[in-house]
Amino acid sequence: xxxxxxxxxxxxxxxxxxxxxxxxxxxxxxxxxxxxxxxxxxxxxxxxxxxxxxxxxxxxxxxxxxxxxxxxxxxxxxxxxxxxxxxxxxxxxxxxxxxxxxxxxxxxxxxxxxxxxxxxxxxxxxxxxxxxxxxxxxxxxxxxxxxxxxxxxxxxxxxxxxxxxxxxxxxxxxxxxxxxxxxxxxxxxxxxxxxxxxxxxxxxxxxxxxxxxxxxxxxxxxxxxxxxxxxxxxxxxxxxxxxxxxxxxxxxxxxxxxxxxxxxxxxxxxxxxxxxxxxxxxxxxxxxxxxxxxxxxxxxxxxxxxxxxxxxxxxxxxxxxxxxxxxxxxxxxxxxxxxxxxxxxxxxxxxxxxxxxxxxxxxxxxxxxxxxxxxxxxxxxxxxxxxx
Length: 388
Ligand code: PMP
Hints:
Radius of gyration: 21 Å
Order of helices and strands: EHHEHEHEHEEEHEEEHHHHEHEEEHH
Structural class: alpha/beta
Bound molecules: 4'-deoxy-4'-aminopyridoxal-5'-phosphate
Strand content: 5-15%
Distance between the termini: 35 Å
Low-confidence stretches: none
Shape: globular
Helix content: 40-55%
Mean pLDDT: 97
């Protein structure tokens, strides 16, 4: 019997065989020629995946929270004002990190769980002036709410603030065009749509953010995160020279280079379209099974994950039966509604059969807990979208 389950949570995700082979290669020195070449190539490919030709990529060992920490440590000086466009759990985290580096933080919050702040509310906050930067969580993984990054970034630009996007649950899945949309810094982590096991903090820093960093007067308040140290390392590897500040995560960086190559072979436009199509198929199944979703409307919903509410009379014991059927999904995370919903990640190398398998396992779980529905209704709805 197969003991492996399909991992359909919003990160870590299922990784491709090529990525896993890179993880299993005998580790070399971080100054070995084959590592230098792979690191240099990965940095070049980051620009193409983030769609930011004039950006400076950083690849550092750590998780997505380190990428957030690094953005704040290098861009904020004590006394700066920061605006957090807050769609949930990870907006709160960004606010706390910014405060740790001395920023005065103002949050523009959604009016209800599952909603995103209105552009007009963000604009009203920006008009009061005095902000150095604003942060946006592209996809809030706790609620599956997607922010209108394009519209928000345009507002940020208009008001002369640096635009920082937490793209941990979006980069390489959800459409994000860093340079064209005027995003000054976009960050992610390896374990999500970029398709590499956990352990890398990734970001691309645009020219305005670099300028702001070079103009700072106060020293960076975090030794490990300081771009003064990391910038020459990134430049060295890209020029196919070795460098050392902290030992790079050799196997993860090989795996990153493989994954970025696979992403670019698919093409960014095709990749965004695949995520949209699979997401629509999965969401159609959820609706056909009588479940509502946390995001309040389709235009505020992520393509990389889905957050369905349990139907009446069903609770999280159903998730154990979904697992029995071979698929692992995630429970709720947002403290206000934690017990009322679950989350399914569908990003990275995900395909139509993963979607159908997951819908089938959810139907099995619902049936096992006695929920009344027509078996196959979810599968038929997903197939109808996939066959379009
Ligand atoms: N931001 C978002 C939107 C996330 O989804 C996550 C992780 N789920 C993080 C930040 C933090 O990343 P990590 O867990 O890798 O530190």
